[in-house]
């Protein structure tokens, strides 16, 4: 992304939030799962935690319960539920880490928990994730990390958050102006 695209980070954030809110719950959930698949696990966990702060405790407990059941199922590869207390598992940070791990170890589990019968949960989380992604992007831009290349192209090892913006906005990176 070029420096010009970061000239007005607040406008970029507003564009991302507007794009998120215009999505149906089903599409937001699908985009959220795409985000998880493209981010390194640590960044996905951070994004998940930020997004899950926007979900009420009851819905987080439903997600935690699904992760716990998957962890106990010998047919599932997910092994990230390590909690004795279900309320500890339902915190945004804990769920953020577990859902990122589930997306890596058992993508079908992530699709099941964040789509399908839970599509409204996945949609709510997806919209919150896009808003959280905008906040992460703004933080990176303001700290100077987002301006890795002024050539307009992606450098090797480029920031994955900048890389996924085009996909989140429907196929093209946001343009300045």
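^ Assign residues to that structure.
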């Amino acid at each position: 992304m070029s420096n010009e695209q970061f000239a007005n980070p607040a406008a970029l954030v507003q564009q991302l939030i507007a794009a998120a809110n215009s999505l149906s719950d089903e599409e937001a959930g699908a985009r959220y799962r795409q985000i998880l698949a493209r981010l390194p696990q640590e960044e996905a966990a951070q994004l998940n935690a930020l997004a899950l702060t926007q979900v009420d405790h009851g819905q987080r407990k439903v997600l935690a319960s699904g992760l716990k059941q998957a962890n106990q199922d010998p047919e599932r590869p997910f092994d990230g539920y390590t909690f004795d207390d279900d309320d500890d598992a339902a915190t945004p940070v804990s769920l953020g880490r577990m859902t990122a791990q589930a997306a890596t170890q058992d993508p079908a589990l992530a699709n099941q928990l964040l789509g399908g019968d839970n599509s409204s949960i996945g949609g709510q989380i997806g919209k919150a994730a896009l808003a959280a992604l905008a906040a992460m992007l703004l933080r990176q831009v303001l700290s100077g990390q987002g301006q890795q290349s002024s050539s307009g192209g992606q450098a090797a090892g480029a920031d994955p958050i900048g890389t996924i913006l085009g996909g989140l906005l429907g196929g093209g990176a946001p343009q300045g102006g």
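The first helix runs from residue 9 to 21.
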